[in-house]
Design brief:
Helices cover 45% and strands 10% of the residues. By secondary structure, it is an alpha+beta fold. The protein folds into 3 domains: 2-89, no CATH class; 106-202, Tyrosine recombinase, N-terminal domain (DNA polymerase, domain 1); 218-394, hpI Integrase, Chain A (Orthogonal Bundle), CATH 1.10.443.
Length: 440
């Protein structure tokens, strides 16, 4: 019968710390003649040192031989202990030989998980998770037995990443990867609990996002576009459209001429592009993005330019895509990022991400007084809350003017007259039933 020792707050000197088979010996207080009384076999589960996050061990005492096995969390230890006890009863478990269960490493389970999700996740997501595993998670946990990794170790891993300067959003991705691997281990009945669950909440990392927004101001935007005309004129239309629509990078690269309606003045965002693959948009919905008159003119010039390239290169027809390589193929994200950085540097501007062009569009529209609801629809955000949380301090308000209204006597007189008019047109002071009783 398996027992769980509740007096686990003290070290256990009667058992070896290492996982090994001891020579014949006794437990503390063990009666050598106890075997004849049915005490020849004992399997206990306990912590060597009590405390949340500390591992649980299996202690075996069988026919004078002892062994301790580190088993991970309590439920895993109890499950393994039950298996060992059954094997002891049937004579299948010999303590004088190394019959510990084969070590199942975190790396092995992680490899199975990353292969399984390849068919269910977007290629970009699978690639990102693979990179996180290889660069961050496996160097820390890869060689460890997955049953031995504790919640405390996972928490310390996240804390160290934060101390090293990682963004909260990055730590959130590490959490997603580690949690995915452990969920797979739970499905395989290797562990009974996921040590990554609840850790980021405990660290106060949930309930908020990194708002790493670094847009260009109006002057910087003009410098960038002027620089682009001379530094990379073939990509001027691309960057102009980015700054006038706020589209995501993959969405810009996937726009086709069939998506552009010059007559109605809008562009339909239907897909995104990355590394040779066209997929649906981030929120899996298409949307209309308004096209300014200036953008319409720039895109018409781009269409003319493509027609000239078609004749020059002997193509049968112009490319479907609005923005292409010189060979008429889709532009890759990393390539256009390099062009963007080159323009920034040669134009004498600070280094920002290409995604900050999206932030530039949103912040400038809001600072000019455009409705957050309109900007939300243009950007394709799933909720107005996301738009307000991200760009709230660019939303133009009348708060400053409002503070000065009481200091303007003309506004005060006007407001007083309006208030009097409203009061006179409101409900009569005399109850309607008593009006007839009043004599003129």
């Amino acid at each position: 019968m398996i027992t769980t020792d509740k007096a686990a707050n003290q070290d256990c000197p009667d058992y070896p710390d290492a996982e090994k088979t001891g020579s014949p010996g006794r437990l503390s207080g063990h009666n050598p003649q106890g075997e004849s009384k049915g005490l020849s076999m004992g399997v206990k589960v306990r912590q060597k040192t009590k405390g949340k996050g500390n591992p649980w061990w299996i202690f075996i005492n069988h026919e004078g031989q002892r062994k301790s096995i580190k088993a991970g969390d309590k439920r895993t230890a109890e499950r393994k202990a039950a298996k060992i006890e059954k094997m002891l009863r049937t004579g299948q478990y010999q303590l004088n030989t190394d019959q510990a269960e084969p070590k199942i490493t975190f790396k092995k389970v992680a490899g199975e998980w990353i292969d399984e999700i390849k068919i269910t996740r977007k290629a970009s997501t699978h690639e990102r998770y693979s990179q996180i595993l290889d660069l961050h998670v496996l160097p820390k946990f890869g060689k460890r037995d997955i049953t031995e990794i504790t919640r405390g170790e996972v928490k310390n891993f996240f804390v160290k990443k934060l101390e090293d300067g990682c963004a909260r959003s990055s730590v959130g991705l590490y959490r997603d990867v580690i949690s995915g691997v452990f969920n797979n281990a739970i499905y395989q009945e290797l562990v009974s609990a996921n040590p990554a669950l609840g850790v980021t909440k405990k660290l106060g990392l949930e309930g908020g996002k990194d708002l790493n927004v670094d847009p260009l101001d109006f002057e910087e935007t003009q410098v960038f576009l002027e620089g682009c005309r001379t530094i990379a004129p073939e990509y001027y239309a691309f960057f102009f459209m980015a700054l006038r629509t706020g589209m995501r990078l993959g969405e810009l690269l996937a726009i086709q001429w069939g998506d552009v309606d010059f007559n109605s003045g809008y562009i339909v965002v239907r897909r995104t592009y990355k590394r040779g693959q066209f997929t649906e948009t981030k929120n899996k919905k298409s949307r209309r993005v308004d096209m300014s008159e200036a953008l319409k003119a720039v895109l018409q010039d781009q269409a003319t330019r493509q027609k000239k390239d078609t004749l020059k290169n002997g193509w049968s027809e112009p490319p479907e895509l609005v923005f292409t390589t010189q060979a008429g193929k889709a532009l890759e994200q990393n390539y256009i990022r390099r062009v963007f950085k080159r323009v920034l540097k040669k134009a004498g501007l600070r280094e920002i991400r290409i995604h900050d062009l999206r932030h530039t569009y949103a912040s400038q529209m809001l600072s000019l007084g455009e409705s957050p609801v309109y900007v939300k629809e243009q950007l394709g955000h799933h909720s107005i809350q996301l738009t307000v949380d991200t760009y709230g301090h660019w939303i133009k308000t009348e708060r400053a003017c409002g503070a000065n209204k009481l200091d303007n006597p003309q506004l005060s007189i006007s407001a007083n007259a309006q208030s009097t008019s409203i009061r006179q047109n409101s409900a009569p002071k005399t109850h309607p039933e008593n009006i007839k009783a009043v004599t003129p």
